[in-house]
Specification:
It contains 6 helices and 12 strands. It has helices spanning 16-23, 37-42, 53-62, 66-74, 84-89, 182-191; strands spanning 5-10, 29-34, 45-48, 79-82, 90-93, 103-108, 118-123, 133-138, 142-146, 151-156, 159-165, 168-171. It is globular. It binds glutamine.
Length: 192
């Protein structure tokens, strides 16, 4: 990565502090909470945290960020959606209206069902790291379909749990709730 980069975390609701803290562990990164179009203009890349996708989506509209954010993503700004953030990115949300609707994936909310509401796994994501990393799932969605240039990065029990499409990264799990920084390193490479 060349020069210091400013990475924003959409800061309406959800695991915002955890993402800001993880970014704070990279000396080459300035981490910025984003709630306004002005703050969005200042970032080189953005993380959409986990939380409740319907709530975050409403706040994006109320704060006038939905359309500016969609445009930044379409113009190529690197963006990473974790869990609810992945739902925000998807062009299709099974049985519901999409939100930002920018990524060629169809997601199913709360897909892992009541028994597996929350669980952890250790899996290797070859594009990210050659070794297994801890994955935390909390009422997580899965990706039912990916098309176009969207590529699955991890399939878990027959369902896609991470995908990449050009400048967009989506993970059903929460790296910000573990000590492992490898998915952050992968995202930093996308920022270049
Ligand atoms: N179940 C939440 C939703 O549908 C996502 C959960 C999460 O982000 N941990 O928005």
């Amino acid at each position: 990565m060349t020069g210091k980069k400013t990475i924003g975390v959409l800061s309406f609701q959800g695991s915002v502090e955890e993402h800001l803290a993880a970014l704070g562990r990279f000396p080459e990164v300035t981490a910025l909470p984003v709630k306004t179009p002005e703050a969005l203009n200042r970032v080189d890349a953005l993380i959409l945290p986990g939380g409740e996708s319907t709530t975050i989506s409403k706040l994006l509209s109320i704060f006038g960020l939905m359309e500016p954010l969609r445009q930044r993503i379409l113009q190529g700004m690197p963006v990473w959606g974790t869990c609810a953030g992945m739902i925000l990115l998807a062009k299709e949300v099974v049985g519901e209206q999409p939100h930002l609707g920018v990524m060629d994936i169809a997601v199913r909310r709360n897909a892992y069902g009541s028994q597996l509401d929350s669980f952890t796994a250790n899996e290797t994501i070859p594009a990210v790291l050659g070794d297994p990393i801890p994955l935390v799932f909390i009422r997580a969605p899965w990706v039912e379909r990916a098309w176009g240039t969207a590529e699955p990065l991890l399939t878990l029990n027959g369902h896609i749990a991470a995908a990449r499409q050009d400048n967009m990264l989506a993970t059903a799990f929460h790296p910000e709730l573990t000590d492992d920084l490898s998915v952050y390193r992968y995202f930093l490479q996308m920022i270049g």
